[in-house]
Specification:
Elements lengths: L1 H12 L4 H24 L6 E6 L5 H14 L4 E5 L2 H14 L2 H4 L2 E5 H12 L9 H23 L7 E4 L7 H9 L7 E6 L17 E5 L1 E2 L4 H7 L8 E2 L10 E5 L2 H18 L7 E5 L13 E2 L2 E4 L2 H5 L4 E5 L8 E9 L6 H8 L2 E10 L3
Parallel strand pairs: 1-5, 1-6, 2-3, 2-4, 4-5, 7-8, 9-15, 10-13, 10-14, 12-13, 14-15
Antiparallel strand pairs: 11-12
Helix pairs in contact: 2-3, 6-7, 7-8, 9-12
């Protein structure tokens, strides 16, 4: 028996468990994110700073670090993002991790959420139209103009000493007039984080002028294989550091129809669950269609795990998240299955945004069915 163990040990030592490979990759990526923060600290003397970077360069976390540092100094700070689900998750994370003294100086919100707050404080009825076209105009024009003309004077208490904006490429020009007016000082502290390649809502390029612009060019979210795959259709100026782990090649699967797409997704997630110990809160299924119009319509479980569209339930580990590309923007997961359709393929920008959310495991399952 002893001789048997001695003969087998060298072999087993060269074949680590697959889930341990993912753990080692994650440790390397966390180290790279910390290095990005050190670089940003060197630019903290600039009161107005723009940080430009592609997907996976750590913009959201760096922006959050900047906002938290302001708050720790007792500076009333607003962190704004575009994605509602991202805003909810960041708020919960700040509630859990910050002291009450720091938390009282930091407000995390979306621009739309901030608008609602202004209307509420000013005691003005807030009722967005139901018609899609009127609703779009309401958010794009009516609300920003109303806030700039009336609400800012009626709610003077809601002002900040520093403002940090994430996903800034999605903020319209009219919104910036309001955001700048939220600063207690003219040309007050402003940090903007953006990536023009992720601009999937509007073609406007309206980033305000700042004292300095810093380019983040090192990917620190994804393994090298996933990063190279996600940027292949985009002219994104982002490279992987030599220290970024290579990781596993993304999987591409072609199927004939929706039932086959669901079956392949189920089979893949089962294998990830077994081989890499992927828990529900580390796994997301992304589609250009909502759940009820996807191959998972009427299906409540995948690989023995519940399916949820609720970000909070997902973060708690109560289900595998099903989300659209746009709704998952700004978020990330260790493992992602992307569901696409050849007759209506995602745009290059959508593909870049969706695939770059995956950190370690990525699969694209395409159906030829319309």
């Amino acid at each position: 028996m002893k001789l048997c163990r001695e003969r087998l040990r060298p072999v087993f030592g060269l074949i680590p468990a697959r889930w341990r490979e993912l753990e080692r990759d994650e440790e390397q990526l966390v180290t790279l994110t910390t290095q990005q923060q050190v670089v940003l600290d060197g630019l903290s003397d600039n009161r107005r700073l723009a940080v430009r970077g592609g997907a996976g360069t750590g913009k959201t976390m760096l922006g959050l670090w900047r906002a938290v540092e302001y708050a720790r100094e007792g500076i009333d700070t607003l962190f704004l993002c575009f994605n509602r689900q991202l805003g909810q998750w960041l708020n919960e994370r700040m509630d859990e991790e910050l002291s009450s003294t720091t938390r009282k100086h930091l407000q995390v919100n979306t621009f739309h959420g901030l608008c609602r707050e202004f209307y509420r404080r000013a005691r003005i009825p807030f009722s967005p139209p139901q018609d899609p076209q009127q609703k779009a105009d309401f958010w794009a024009n009516v609300v920003p103009n109303k806030m700039f003309d009336v609400l800012l004077d009626e709610v003077p208490s809601l002002r900040f000493e520093a403002i940090v904006v994430d996903e800034a490429q999605d903020f319209r020009s009219d919104w910036w007039l309001v955001i700048e007016s939220l600063n207690r000082e003219t040309n007050g502290r402003l940090a903007i984080f953006y990536d023009p390649n992720q601009n999937i809502f509007t073609d406007e390029n309206t980033i305000p002028q700042t004292d300095a612009v810093f380019n983040l060019k090192i990917n620190c979210r994804n393994t090298r294989e996933i990063h190279d795959y996600s940027v292949k259709m985009m002219n994104a100026d982002v490279q992987s550091s030599p220290r970024v782990p290579a990781g596993l090649k993304p999987i591409e699967i072609e199927v004939a129809d929706s039932p086959q797409q669901r079956e392949q997704c189920e089979s893949l997630i089962k294998s990830w669950k077994t081989d890499y110990r992927i828990s529900p809160n580390r796994l997301a299924i992304l589609s250009h269609r909502k759940l009820e119009r996807s191959c998972f319509n009427g299906v409540s479980r995948v690989a023995g795990m519940p399916i949820t569209s609720d970000l909070n339930e997902w973060k708690k580990g109560n289900g595998v998240l099903f989300s659209t590309f746009a709704a998952f923007k700004g978020l990330e997961a260790d493992a992602i299955v992307l569901l696409t359709s050849r007759p209506s393929p995602p745009s290059a920008s959508d593909f870049y945004v969706a695939t770059s959310r995956a950190k370690h495991l990525l699969a694209v399952i395409e159906t030829t069915e319309a």
